[in-house]
Amino acid sequence: MFSKYIEKQFKKAKFKVLKDGSYFGSIPVFPGVWANKKTLASCKKELKEVLEESLILKVRNKENIPGFDIKFDRRSMFKHA
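User: That's the sequence. What structure does it adopt?
Assistant: Structure tokens below.
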């Protein structure tokens, strides 16, 4: 299920060639998720890795993920307080 979500969001990625000839990619719905590499293939690979890492951090930090509903047990958030 998570893999399908990543693939769906990755399809929304935007890529452009910069003045120096490198490729810049981002996913608009995820501010801060971007990559800049010399080739389009390496840019796509890096962008997907950054997206995955961003999602892992959002789950760990119990943050909202656009288009993905995760239920957190609020009681567990206060067990160690």
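The chain has two helices and three strands.
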